[in-house]
């Protein structure tokens, strides 16, 4: 007999089904709870709530496991490319050679953006944050493709997914070029995904730019590590917006905004700024750790802690190793790396961090690599978004194609005033 859960409210009992995932995770299915009992569940921050079933990414926060479509992240980081991983996440299997060639060709052919779109850049202040610009530009792509963005049409879905992955680097690089007052560099079809982005970021019309394969390789790794992370804040945002059947550009643009926050993807920028401020303030690493523990201060150690990982974030392990390798191969000595390592060492031994199971997360070392690659600090979260894009798209596609798809609409427990007449309220004003 299949397992069930019994919930007792007053003198009545209700039986609820248990759903079991392929890795043995279990959930009480409360889909019919309100209809059966009149009650809802309350779970602030969704700590215990599964919003969907998904076959894309598995992570075990206690054991520090992360797999895309069953394949361990360590193996993908070692052997794959970002565009292959994007295919894997979106279509559920690794592409064969012909499929990969075709996929890469399509991603290359759609990299250009409409010339009119460039005029939008002139309206933004020079120092406008690139995440704001990017979210706006991604939403604005929908205005150019109104004939092919119906989420319920499989052909429209296909071309929209390709356009987004192909054009994101172009838009990101254009936003950067605008911020530094340089002319934009058009995409180059002969280059692979990462090299093309680097070329658009760093080439100038006046001289040749040589793409360093080490830099391209490091970028490839970072994008793979960020490519999906199941139902995090930005992915859940993409699903929620997408569930209204708004077009994919609108859904992804919302995901970009969610990612921007310092408790989510914005942490990579915060980590670097924190390390620089430690370097400049002359405060010791111990003093910074004390500040992070002080309940009278809102300061948190950026790049530490994770909602799901209560053990080492497996991505952080890979990035730390890559950080050492990349800096050595590029011949860079960055004192911020030394500060970061000392900070990690002190925090990991501190009882406060031990008790709360706070470990370095993916963002702790990624900024140091981005800095070594020449990416400016305010572009770090844009880079995270570039990596996360296939994950957002895969999750959106899975949701739209699910026969159970419903508009996302949480409930609440109302705690405000009970009915009050306007006249009485006015008297109390
Ligand atoms: N520094 C100091 N204290 C912390 C930190 C930190 N980085 N993170 C959590 N805590 C404390 C927090 O104050 C709380 O203490 P207490 O129990 O005494 O009230 C306890 O640990 C639990 O924190 P929480 O906020 O309830 O935990 P959460 O699971 O809701 O939050 C988090 C997870 C990532 C938002 C949080 O750890 C954090 O703010 N970290 C810093 C920001 C960061 O690095 N974000 C990137 C996350 S990884 C990239 C991504 O996927 O977005």
Number of helices: 18
Overall mean pLDDT stands at 95
Q: Which percent band covers the strand fraction?
A: 5-15%
Pattern of helices and strands: EEEHEEEHHHHHHHHHHHHHHHHH
Molecules bound to protein: carboxymethyl coenzyme *A
Radius of gyration: 23 Å
Q: Which oligomeric state applies?
A: single chain
Distance between the termini: 61 Å
- Share of helical residues: 40-55%
Shape: globular
- Give me the count of strands: 6
- Low-confidence segments, given as residue ranges, are none
Structural class: mainly alpha
Keywords:
binds carboxymethyl coenzyme *A, 429 residues, 7% strand, 3-stranded antiparallel β-sheet, mainly alpha
Fold and architecture overview:
With 429 residues, this protein is mainly alpha-helical. Helices cover 52% and strands 7% of the residues. The chain has helices spanning 33-37, 73-79, 82-91, 97-109, 130-144, 154-180, 193-202, 213-226, 233-242, 248-260, 267-281, 285-293, 314-329, 335-349, 351-355, 363-372, 380-401, 422-428, and strands spanning 4-9, 12-20, 26-28, 57-60, 65-68, 71-72. The strands form 2 sheets. It has a 3-stranded antiparallel β-sheet with strand order 1-2-3. A 3-stranded antiparallel β-sheet has the order 4-5-6. Helix 10 (248-260) crosses helix 17. The site of carboxymethyl coenzyme *A has 20 residues, from loops. Carboxymethyl coenzyme *A is lined by residues 229, 232, 263-265, 267, 292, 300-307, 356, 358, 361-363.
